[in-house]
Predict the structure.
Amino acid sequence: MSRTPLIAGNWKMNGTIAESEDRVASLLPRIATAEHVDVAVCVPFTALQAVVDSTRGSRLEVFAQNMHHEPSGAFTGEISAPMLTEIDVHGVVLGHSERRQLFGETDKVLQLKVPAAMDAGLTVILCVGETEDERENGDTERRLRHQVQEGLEKVPVERLGEVVVAYEPIWAIGTGQTATAEQAQDALAFVRALVADRSKEAAEHVRVLYGGSMKPDNAAELLALPDCDGGLIGGASLDVEQFVAIIDAAPR
């Protein structure tokens, strides 16, 4: 099964509207002919509309970094799927480790968010991954099994293949550490096997990304792994040159 790689840049809480527009303006001509890969940027809420407008008609997709599972209601400070689709956002990142660790997001909540986003027509990147303690204690597979099974439980089998799952070893995010190719492949393959437990066909279609400090100097090795279908890029996505180098490293 040939799966089109996805390189998604997660800008996190970085970028005013002006800064975001400048970054996109530099990026767009560099990816205009990168037809071998899908490219997305995950943008702060305040800059979403501006970036969507700046990228209309281009190959660049625009994702939000979070959303609430309800379409509306008394949820101060939250954003719903209809609010995102109204401004033509393409997708949303759900369950990023920072959301889980810093803001208490749980697998039970993600179990509601994932199908809500999909029902609204948004592409979902569901993030999963283990802490350093969990890896050292041999709990990586147990943690991944729980996160993947919980996060996808309410997704119909016939739609499982539409989900993107990003494996992010938490101990390698923003630390400069990176999983070895063997560690990354083992985890990516395990995530795919978990999807296969529900549907072997869906497992062939689902894209599994690596999300732990991918940079230009390690991108080619990681992206060449059998079960790696792209990357969820953090800090390196804020630098257009580095981000483009990672995009260029994706297999053709």
User: Anything to note?
Assistant: The chain has a mean pLDDT of 95. The longest strand covers residues 123-128. The longest helix spans residues 181-196. The radius of gyration is 17 Å.
